[in-house]
UniProtKB/TrEMBL annotation:
Keywords linked to the UniProt accession: Aminoacyl-tRNA synthetase, ATP-binding, Coiled coil, Cytoplasm, Ligase, Metal-binding, Nucleotide-binding, Protein biosynthesis, RNA-binding, tRNA-binding, Zinc
Gene giving rise to this polypeptide: alaS
Domain Alanyl-transfer RNA synthetases family profile: 2-708
Name of the protein: Alanine--tRNA ligase
Function: Catalyzes the attachment of alanine to tRNA(Ala) in a two-step reaction: alanine is first activated by ATP to form Ala-AMP and then transferred to the acceptor end of tRNA(Ala). Also edits incorrectly charged Ser-tRNA(Ala) and Gly-tRNA(Ala) via its editing domain.
GO CC list: cytoplasm
InterPro entries (alphabetical): aa-tRNA-synth_II/BPL/LPL, Ala-tRNA-lgiase_IIc, Ala-tRNA-ligase_IIc_anticod-bd, Ala-tRNA-synth_IIc_core, Ala-tRNA-synth_IIc_N, Ala-tRNA_ligase, Ala_tRNA_ligase_euk/bac, DHHA1_dom
EC numbers on record: 6.1.1.7
Taxonomic source organism: Bacteroides intestinalis
Length: 872
């Protein structure tokens, strides 16, 4: 029986024999494409080629791609663990043709690989073809059907509808019919009763799709119409885990050697066995799936967080922790302990797991610990919500309360329902769903983008000339209108551009497009599918006219200084802290730089100073830039350039060198380090377990910062009569203040004791209740101390009411003994009603409550109102 690793290698070898270039998997986390957070299909890394934004280096390509599907139309998250074949992270085996072969070869090679190489019984295979769409003028894909008839009987070739058999990249763009290959893995007796053809695409767990062959031959326009693609594309994707399951004769993906070692480790940890209990099995499948997703995401540079892709990863991790908590009794962090078995099984194919073992482990453990604390908080809040509901005779909590637990505290609805069931209660699910729908609608409205068709003025691709020029003569290739948040913007593609498009942490250039007719402001430059897009608020009145593209050079220079300083900072951190330091993210703007890096403890003030001194020394040395543009990647590595995990590099790369600092980089830089001026680190903090963040200024911003510091010190000196030893003088004042504060506290304690004794002498007993009341200008903290001291001395039948004035504002305080509270009196209710007489409000606990107000003259009346309400 072939192992998972052997199957993966056999696929690559087969297509290599058919003239395909085998390329490495792209990172699962996508950094420079605003249209997508994660790689959710094998074709993602080739989008720019398919869209015609970049020429294909190889006409035929094959790979095994790490994918993640948890959002949008490919959202399988809620099925994961509950069935046998859905996953969050999975591998997609694929082969592509960019304007080379088409349907015949794709079908013939798929058949050859499955039947002749892997020896799958052809009688268990079914193929679907697009049935056509009369409303769009599309006929049945008879071409694909005819090719399938050379391999399969007609009753194994099935028509599929538009949902299943017409693939689209999005609302617009390349699309086309597809042909799915399904396999029937049921026992022979079941096949005899019901033919597999009746179960294809019917969600049967043993009749599943394993390979999808997409024939891209159309382009979908914004109005919904279709036009033919000039260069047709083959894009295939086969679920690796499903293929392994088929070849290993299993009925579940989780029974293969892809997951079994992880499941065994989970079972051992929980003191159980996989296959004993359905709920526990679901929990173990969820955890086994999710640990892969989380570990690979972290290696690709995406840490759990509360925003965008980071929030998706955090949500997946919390889902796994919750299943372990609820069904496997895991009350302590446990997922990070699964990392060794994951690395043992997948480390050979993906060595980045072993290389980042320590970081992955620390990040996962910290996230687990944090969420377990959240679960405890949620349980306490739910306990209170249940108690409040029961107090009013209800057995149902509101959907709003359940949604608040979910939305604010991250407490899952199914856990809320589980705890409620254990207490004989329910939640209003309709109300919860309504709250959820409102939130989703708000998010959709905020993110809704209406994109028009590209208006093409002339064919061509963009040449970036921004490394050498900040002004360049250009013309518009195409443009389109984009509407978002009630704002209309325009996206413009130029044939040549000096504008740097946002990527690699560096923000995009701004500037102007100038023609003889007008000047158009470029407010940002972004990259979409590797295409530089210039964003404007206005469309040129004469878009066909030649123009000059002019970058804002002040902003560019500031960005370049900060970007080059980031490289020097990276090098200095490795020198001071150690070679384990690796970049985990960066942001370069004209105003500042931000650098995230792996390090497992706080960087000390002394270490920060060392780093600053090293960088500033290199700035003063005025080291000239050495740029290696478009050199082979192996040559770059020989120069010492460090490849970052989570980044995808081509065969040819750009390297930036300032002395000993050598890095892969596509950004803009200074001509020599002296142009940076100076660097000053302004903050150092934690981003996640094992990841620190430094923020810094360069150049003129350092001058501004030093001016601010100098002004502050001057003002402080003036406050202390220009004392020569400012620190010593301030320390002396602090010590004197602490002494005076202690004297004041001692004095207040004496004063409180005197007031308490006077109150005890004036205490009245009314209807058996010991009433103590006072109206005087006493500090709030003192009256509280007096109230609790009296309660400690008079343990029964005490009613203490105080009206005080604190900083000119009236305040009402009520203290009751426990037996009066047990008899039905509530200090909070008394003070809330009486506070109306001082034009205020308040509340508190049953035995102690306070209220503030505006009307000092109403204090005496408020005191009497408390006694009246208490029936005294």
């Amino acid at each position: 029986m072939l192992t998972a690793n052997e199957i993966r290698n056999s696929f690559k070898s087969f297509f290599e024999s058919k003239g395909h270039q085998i390329v490495p998997s792209a990172p699962m986390v996508i950094k420079d494409d605003p249209t997508l957070m994660f790689t959710n299909a094998g074709m993602n890394q080739f989008k720019d080629i398919i869209l015609g934004n970049h020429p294909a280096k190889y006409k035929r390509v094959a790979d095994s791609q790490k994918c993640l599907r948890v959002s949008g139309k490919h959202n399988d998250l809620e099925e994961v663990g509950h069935d046998t074949y859905h996953h969050t992270m999975f591998e997609m085996l694929g082969n592509w043709s960019f304007g080379d072969y088409f349907k015949k070869e794709a079908i013939d090679w798929a058949w050859e690989y499955l039947v002749e190489v892997l020896k799958i019984d052809p009688k268990n295979l079914y193929a679907t073809v697009f049935e056509g769409s009369p409303e769009e003028g599309l006929e049945r894909d008879n071409e694909a059907a005819a090719f399938w008839e050379q391999h399969l009987p007609k009753d194994h070739i099935l028509n599929g509808n538009k949902h299943d058999n017409f693939w689209e990249m999005g609302d617009t763009g390349p699309c086309g019919p597809c042909s799915e290959i399904h396999i029937d893995s049921r026992p022979e007796e079941e096949k005899a009763k019901v033919p597999g053809s009746q179960l294809v695409n019917k969600d049967h767990p043993q009749v599943i799709e394993i390979w999808n062959l997409v024939f891209m031959q159309f382009n979908r326009k914004a109005d919904g119409s279709l036009e033919g693609l000039p260069a047709k594309v083959i894009d295939t994707g086969m679920g690796f885990e499903r293929l392994v399951r088929t070849l290993q004769g299993k009925t579940s993906n989780y029974d293969t050697d892809v997951f079994q070692p992880i499941l065994k480790a989970i079972a051992d940890m929980a003191g159980t066995a996989y296959g004993k209990d359905n709920q526990q099995d679901i929990a173990m499948r969820v955890i086994a799936d999710h640990i892969r997703t989380i570990a690979f995401s972290i290696t690709d540079g995406q840490l759990p967080s509360n925003a965008k892709a980071g929030y998706v990863i955090r949500r997946i991790l919390r889902r796994a922790v919750r299943y372990g908590y609820t069904f496997l009794g895991q009350r302590q962090a446990f997922m990070y302990k699964l990392l060794p078995v994951l690395i043992e099984n997948m480390g050979e194919a993906y060595p980045e797991l072993e290389a980042q073992r320590e970081l992955i482990s620390k990040v996962i453990k910290e996230e687990e610990d944090s969420f377990l604390r959240t679960l405890e908080t949620g349980i306490r809040l739910l306990d209170k919500t249940m108690a409040d509901a029961k107090a009013t005779g209800k057995t149902e909590i509101s959907g709003k309360d359940a949604f608040t637990l979910y939305d604010t505290f991250g407490f899952p609805l199914d856990l809320t329902e589980l705890i409620l069931r254990e207490n004989g209660m329910t939640a209003d699910i309709k109300e919860f769903d309504a709250e959820m729908q409102q939130q989703k609608q708000r998010a959709r409205n905020a993110a809704a983008i209406e994109t028009g068709d590209w208006i093409t003025l002339k064919e061509g691709t963009t040449e970036f000339v921004g490394y050498d020029y900040t002004e360049y003569e250009t013309s518009i290739l195409r443009y389109r209108q984009v509407k978002q948040k009630n704002q209309t913007l325009y996206q413009i593609v130029l044939d040549c551009t000096p504008f740097y498009a946002e990527s690699g942490g560096q923000v995009g250039d701004t500037g102007v497009l100038v023609s003889e007719f007008e000047t158009i402001e470029v407010i940002d430059t972004k990259k979409e599918n590797n295409l530089p897009i210039h964003i404007t608020k206005k469309l040129p009145a004469h878009p066909e006219a030649p123009m000059m593209a002019c970058v804002d050079t002040d902003k560019r220079a500031a960005c370049a200084a900060n970007h080059s300083a980031t490289h020097l900072l990276d090098s200095a951190l490795r020198e001071v802290l150690g070679e384990h330091v690796e970049q985990k993210g960066s942001l370069v703007t004209p105003d500042s730089l931000r650098f995230d890096f792996s390090h497992f403890q706080k960087v000390t003030d002394e270490e920060i100073r060392q780093v600053e001194h090293l960088v500033n020394a290199k700035i003063r040395a005025n080291i000239p830039l050495k740029e290696y543009r478009n050199i082979p990647i192996e040559d770059a590595k020989e120069l010492g350039a460090i490849a970052l995990f989570g980044e995808k590099y081509g065969d040819h790369v750009r390297v930036i060198q300032f002395g000993s600092s050598v890095e892969f980089c596509g950004g803009t830089h200074v001509a020599a380090t002296g142009n940076i001026g100076m660097i000053k680190i302004v903050s150092e903090s934690s981003v996640a377990a094992g990841v620190r963040r430094i923020e810094a200024y360069t150049g003129a911003r350092v001058e501004e910062l030093m001016d601010t510091i100098e002004d502050t010190i001057r003002d402080l000196k003036a406050l202390f009569n220009n004392a020569p030893d400012l620190a010593g003088t301030i320390r002396k004042y602090i010590e004197e203040n602490a002494g005076l504060k202690k004297q004041m506290e001692d004095f207040m304690r004496e004063k409180e004791a005197q007031i308490k004794e006077r109150l005890l002498k004036n205490m009245q007993e009314i209807h058996g209740i010991k009433v103590i009341k006072i109206c005087a200008p006493i500090p709030a903290e003192s009256i509280k101390n007096i109230a609790f001291q009296l309660r400690g001395e008079i343990t029964e039948n005490l009613c203490f009411v105080a009206g005080t004035i604190n900083e000119g504002k009236p305040m009402l305080t009520v203290m009751l003994s426990d037996n009066l509270v047990a008899g039905g009196l509530k200090a909070g209710n008394l003070v809330k009603e009486a506070a109306k007489l001082i034009q205020g409000g308040g509340g508190g606990q049953p035995h102690f409550a306070t209220a503030g107000g505006k009307n000092v003259d109403g204090l005496n009346a408020a005191i009497e109102k408390v006694l009246e309400l208490a029936g005294i």
